[in-house]
């Protein structure tokens, strides 16, 4: 049994939340200055949720996303991912889980400039040791989803911003992650490209993806079923965007977004 099988088997008990944080804190120490980036974070994300995280610059949104994605560790509190305590994992186990179960979309796309579109999407799958035919099937499937299969041999610099972000979305979903984490995925896009990326996330969500997205933009926060507002590292309010969610669950897009 591989580590991953063990992980899935442990988490397959049923009612456990996909993500559960209790009293999570993050303190950064720099030059003897303590920054309390996150305090008392209680958060539950279930399979199939679409959560957005909002709040002013510096309130801890990206820090929360990097804890969720195992890129960084909490200073205190508890974090369970798929029912398993993350604190007990070794660095190697964390890396494996990140690679197999978590998809990241970054604000600045983070595509590798000297790899083609195809190679960028393929790279994380290579780390996972998938066979070439399996990689090819996943890469082509993901690029078709984002309507970019006509640009396989282009380099990122030869694409528009919206196209680069669509490739970044393809890279994040090609590995079929348990959860998709997006840090201002529309931050560098004009409104029509921003909408295209948001509609793509909404479509992935309708198909069952669990998504956690940081956004400054209230129009885009509405795409999510639920929004948490952070202020000074604390969750100060939470709202359910019921109307938007219900409409989308029935296959409708809201007009004018
Ligand atoms: N590696 C680090 N070392 C020290 N302080 C940090 C570090 N990363 C973040 N911080 C601090 O933690 C706080 C939260 O930062 P974070 O990047 O999470 O904010 P944010 O809500 O994502 O802001 P923005 O909307 O501008 O992206 C800030 O005060 C920041 O200066
Ligand atoms: Mg940020």
Pick out its properties:
257 residues, alpha/beta, Rossmann fold, 6-stranded mixed beta sheet, 4-stranded antiparallel beta sheet, 37% helix, disordered N terminus, binds adenosine-5'-triphosphate, binds magnesium ion
Write the layout of secondary structure elements.
Layout (H helix, E strand, L loop, with lengths): L2 H9 L7 E12 L2 E13 L4 E5 L6 H8 L7 E6 L2 E2 L5 H11 E4 L11 H11 L4 H14 L15 H14 L4 E5 L7 H16 L3 E5 L3 H4 L4 E6 L2 E7 L1 H8 L8
The protein binds adenosine-5'-triphosphate and magnesium ion (MG).
Magnesium ion binds next to α2.
Bound molecules: adenosine-5'-triphosphate, magnesium ion
| Widest sheet, order of strands | 6-7-8-3-9-10
Question: For this entry, what is the oligomeric state of its chains?
Answer: single chain
Major sheet details: 6 strands, mixed
Query: What number of domains?
Result: 1
Helix content: 25-40%
Please tell me about this protein's structure.
The chain is an alpha/beta fold and 257 residues long. The protein has one domain (46-71, 89-249): P-loop containing nucleotide triphosphate hydrolases (Rossmann fold). Helix content is 37%, strand content 25%. It has 9 helices and 10 strands. It has helices at 3-11, 61-68, 91-101, 117-127, 132-145, 161-174, 191-206, 218-221, 242-249; strands spanning 19-30, 33-45, 50-54, 76-81, 84-85, 102-105, 179-183, 210-214, 226-231, 234-240. Strands 6-7-8-3-9-10 form a 6-stranded mixed beta sheet. Strands 2-1-4-5 form a 4-stranded antiparallel beta sheet. Helix 7 (191-206) links the parallel strand 7 and strand 8 (210-214). Helix 4 (117-127) packs across helix 5 (132-145) and helix 6 packs parallel to helix 7. The radius of gyration is 18 Å and the shape is globular. Mean pLDDT is 87; it is low at 1-14.
């Amino acid at each position: 049994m591989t580590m991953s099988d063990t992980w899935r088997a442990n988490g397959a008990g049923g009612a456990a939340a996909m993500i559960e944080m209790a009293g999570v804190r993050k303190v950064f120490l720099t030059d003897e200055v303590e920054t309390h980036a996150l305090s008392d974070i209680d958060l539950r994300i279930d399979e199939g949720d679409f959560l957005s995280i909002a709040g002013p610059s510096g309130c801890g949104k990206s820090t929360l996303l990097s804890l969720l994605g195992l890129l960084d560790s909490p200073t205190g509190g508890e974090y369970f991912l798929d029912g398993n305590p993350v604190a007990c994992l070794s660095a190697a186990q964390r890396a494996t889980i990140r690679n197999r179960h978590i998809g990241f979309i970054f604000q600045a796309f983070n595509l590798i400039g000297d790899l083609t579109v195809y190679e960028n999407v393929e790279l994380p799958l290579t780390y996972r040791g998938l066979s070439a035919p399996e990689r090819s099937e996943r890469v082509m499937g993901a690029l078709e989803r984002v309507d970019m299969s006509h640009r396989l041999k282009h380099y990122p610099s030869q694409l528009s911003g919206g196209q680069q972000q669509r490739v970044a979305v393809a890279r994040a979903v090609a590995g079929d992650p348990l959860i998709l984490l997006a840090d201002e995925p529309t931050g560098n896009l004009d409104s029509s490209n921003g909408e295209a990326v948001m509609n793509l996330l909404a479509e992935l969500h309708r198909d069952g993806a669990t998504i956690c997205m940081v956004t400054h933009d209230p129009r885009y926060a509405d795409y999510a079923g639920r929004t948490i507002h952070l202020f000074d590292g604390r969750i100060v309010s939470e709202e359910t965007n019921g109307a938007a969610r219900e409409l989308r669950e029935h296959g409708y897009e809201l007009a004018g977004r």
